[in-house]
Design goal:
The structure is a homodimer. By secondary structure, chain A is mostly helical. Chain A has two domains: about 70 residues, Arc Repressor Mutant, subunit A, CATH 1.10.10; about 70 residues. Helices cover about 60% and strands about 5% of the residues of chain A. The first copy, chain A, is built from seven helices and three strands. In chain A, strands 1-3-2 form a three-stranded antiparallel beta sheet. The first copy, chain A, starts with a helix and ends in a 14-residue tail after the last helix. At the A-B interface, helix 5, helix 6 and helix 7 of A face helix 5, helix 6 and helix 7 of B. The first copy, chain A, binds a DNA duplex through helix 2 and helix 3.
DNA sequence: CCGTCGATGTATCGTCCCGATACATCGGAG
DNA sequence: CTCCGATGTATCGGGACGATACATCGACGG
């Protein structure tokens, strides 16, 4: 999941780890933040896999007689996506199976990078997510009506609130899907390229 | 977090790990489930800490000449809470500081065992949680109005939906707090014990 | 001119949790 | 009688987290 998000951000421009974290927090919805304990190991993995490069000139050669403080020598590192990294990102962005929407966190990241996603894939991902959440809702409803009598008021409130949240998510997804379909028809009528990501204000 | 939930459940009656998992899923709101990869290590920790005992008679003594299959010898294990465990649970249940509500997951568990919690602690935890979520909401609002122009429609939708969810949670918490206050006044008027957990249907 | 304070920045450690997987037992349906 | 699904215990590798340490730099006031 981090892999996806990092590649997506680096796809737009090279960045420091620090900046990456800030942008990530923004894109992820503001509440979900990413810790350095996840970020740096993830960058290390991506680097090992050849998906990103660093400008670190490796700290071992060009200063034989230069040792003022010489402590730490911690330098800033700019991460840049490679051609393989871009390929990997587009491979991930093209996936529309359960791995794209079963996990809510990953789905959020997918949504944040939907502008890089083809229209048909967008639609499949949204509908898959809706199906997943609908199943959750049904399970929740069943469980709630089964155990309504045996639960105390607090547990009951917790479940009720959870169910309403899931219900709201389903309706939200339905709205997004509707909009996708409308835009798709609109594009067909306009004769525009199919798969064009709709802009923030499609018709200003 | 698991520690709390497990002790809370075992507080009611001894159980197998398997049953524990099912009850846990129920109490946690139906969506959040707990995997065995978390549960058994957690039980091991609780056992090592002396908070639970098992009926496992230890597999090393009483069958010298008994070896029909002798494979595995995997037996069922019933976990029972100890006096120290109950003490630990009440210690945890009495906490009303940030550790009780800063994390949403832990707060959910707290709520699920609110019937074991004193009325004043309940109120402090609910108000603390509301404050936390309110701060989240303000941060989200600020971030959203700051970046509204630069975000594409999908990221915008994501943030909007997130903000509405947080907003709904604040209102939900306010309702719960109101109810606590009402019940508290009611109890005072009735002359009942302060701290009585309100039942599921306080006035049938 | 200096100190220190907050933002920027890199990095690791221990711990927790998860999904996948393996294995074992048992009651009932076919 | 046999197979199947529910019950049941357990581990493994890996990912993510919070806490923490350390380093650099600009700005601000004393």
């Amino acid at each position: 999941m981090l892999e996806f998000a990092i590649l997506g951000l680096l796809h737009q421009s090279p960045m420091h780890g620090y900046e990456l974290r800030k942008q990530l927090a923004q894109v992820l919805g503001g509440l979900r933040s990413i810790s350095y304990g996840s970020l740096y190991p993830a960058l290390k993995r991506l680097h090992a896999a050849g998906y990103v490069t660093t400008d670190e000139p490796d700290p071992r050669a060009p200063l034989p007689a230069d040792a003022p403080p010489l402590t730490g020598r911690r330098g800033k590192v700019v991460y840049t996506i490679t051609a393989e990294g871009k390929e990997r990102f587009h491979e991930l962005v093209g996936q529309s199976g359960p791995e794209a929407y079963d996990d809510g966190g990953l789905f959020g990241v997918r949504l944040a990078f939907f502008r890089h996603t083809a229209a048909d894939v967008r639609l499949r991902v949204l509908e898959g997510r809706r199906r997943t959440v609908e199943l959750q809702r049904e399970g929740l409803r069943a469980s709630l009506s089964r155990t309504r009598e045996r639960l105390d008021r607090y547990t009951l409130e917790l479940q009720r609130h959870g169910l309403e949240s899931v219900d709201r998510e389903v309706r939200w997804l339905a709205e997004l899907i509707d909009r996708e379909l409308t835009d798709s028809h609109q594009r067909r009528a306009d004769g525009a390229e199919p798969g064009d990501p709709p802009e923030t204000s499609p018709r200003p």
